[in-house]
Design a protein that fits this description.
9-stranded mixed beta sheet; binds pyridoxal-5'-phosphate; about 375 residues; 20 strands; alpha/beta
């Protein structure tokens, strides 16, 4: 019999929520600006293949990933259309770019020269550094840019920049963002003057929400497409209503009575102060459940009721206190992120409990989890 991870721990990807978010975000942008979903880090934990296939069915034809291996993986799953690698790819992997028709980001001038020296035509987009100082050709380095556009073996389909303060609403951040956009469009216009007309894009999730008027030919949409923003505070201010796409579930392996005074788990961190009923879940920190949620910081939902995490989260298993919940049995489903009855636990809850942002929480959901479209 085939092993299905639905017997252990799994992610459910809600197609309808994904479609809704796609439509809501598209509606904020001008007609000619297309969405380019970002599927890096296994589609922010949602499962790159499952998510890409669902989006392709919804008419999406361009995607972004972080590295060549992620692009190859999507091609091997049958995804066609444009796949833009947003990060660096070393020369040793240029053959993969060619074989799998991946579009590589030019991260600086020397990278452009290397890409051209590969000798066979490669599709690229040129990153422009307008102030993040991570990757890209400096927006003031027009001569270098001109040289890149003269290189013999590059098929340059686009140029883009990344806004690094588009999520903040201070006056300083707004001024900075407008300056980034201005520098970017100055580059776009210089290229036009030289007779080059690559596609141009700069917005990602927060840009679509906060600066839709800056839209170019594409918007690279990551976290918001998945129906969450980085923090609950941001979500409260969001101009659009997004629906979380992901639920995370696991099975109960075993239920036991623990006498008052006995401990649960590693390190004697939890002691029962009454006769407790403890259930053991088939999911642990190796699956992406942050260990910071140990010892009652986090809870899970069983039969629509909250059960606190008891003791330290283990690598592959987690104990929960179900003393006050009747009829809990092995095989029952625990909801770690998502709804059960009238209760809901969100990625925002995890993010605040683990002192991080939802992007990190979701992207760290591990490879053992099966991804299921529902
Ligand atoms: C990750 C990434 C995005 C997507 O960002 P979100 O905030 O998740 O929408 C867009 N562009 C680049 C260059 C990225 O690295």
């Amino acid at each position: 019999m085939a092993v299905t991870q639905r017997d252990r721990a799994w992610v459910e990807v809600n197609r309808e929520a994904l479609h809704r978010n796609l439509e809501v975000l598209r509606a904020r942008l001008p007609e000619n600006c297309r969405l380019m979903p970002v599927l890096k880090a296994n589609a922010y934990g949602h499962g790159a293949a499952v998510t890409a296939k669902a989006l392709a069915q919804m008419g999406v034809t361009s995607f972004c990933v972080a590295c060549a291996a992620e692009g190859v993986d999507l091609r091997q799953q049958g995804i066609s259309g444009e796949i833009l690698i947003l990060g660096y790819t070393p020369a040793s992997q240029f053959p993969l770019l060619h074989r799998y028709r991946l579009t590589q980001t030019v991260v600086d001038t020397s990278h452009a020269v290397q890409l051209s020296q590969f000798g066979r035509k490669l599709r690229v987009q040129v990153s422009i550094d307008t102030g993040m100082h991570r990757l890209g050709v400096g927006s003031g380095q027009l001569e270098q840019l001109f040289r890149i556009f003269q290189l013999p073996n590059l098929e340059i389909t686009g140029i883009f920049t990344h806004l690094c303060a588009e999520d903040l609403d201070s006056q300083e951040a707004r001024t900075f963002t407008f300056r980034q956009a201005e520098e970017f469009y100055t580059v776009v216009n210089a290229l036009k003057g030289w007779g080059f007309f690559p596609k141009a894009h700069l917005l990602s999730s927060y840009g679509i929400l906060n600066y839709p008027e800056l839209a170019g030919d594409y918007a690279r949409i990551g976290i918001a497409l998945y129906g969450v923003l980085s923090t609950q505070q941001d979500a409260a201010k969001s101009p659009v209503h997004l629906q979380p796409v992901l639920s995370l579930k696991a099975r109960i392996a075993s239920v036991r009575e623990v006498p008052s005074g006995e401990h649960v788990g590693y390190g004697l961190q939890f002691a029962a102060n009454r006769t407790a009923k403890i259930a053991t879940l088939t999911i642990g920190y190796a699956d992406g459940l942050p260990r910071a949620l140990s010892c009652g910081v986090g809870s899970v939902l069983i039969h629509g009721r909250k059960a606190p995490i008891a003791g330290c989260i283990c690598m592959d298993q987690t104990m929960i206190d179900v003393t006050d919940i009747p009829d809990v049995h092995p095989g029952d489903i625990a909801v770690l992120i998502g709804a059960s009855g009238s209760q809901r636990i969100t990625a925002y809850d995890w993010a605040s409990q683990a002192h991080t942002i939802t992007n990190e929480i979701l992207s760290r959901l591990g490879p053992r989890l099966e991804r299921i479209l529902v």
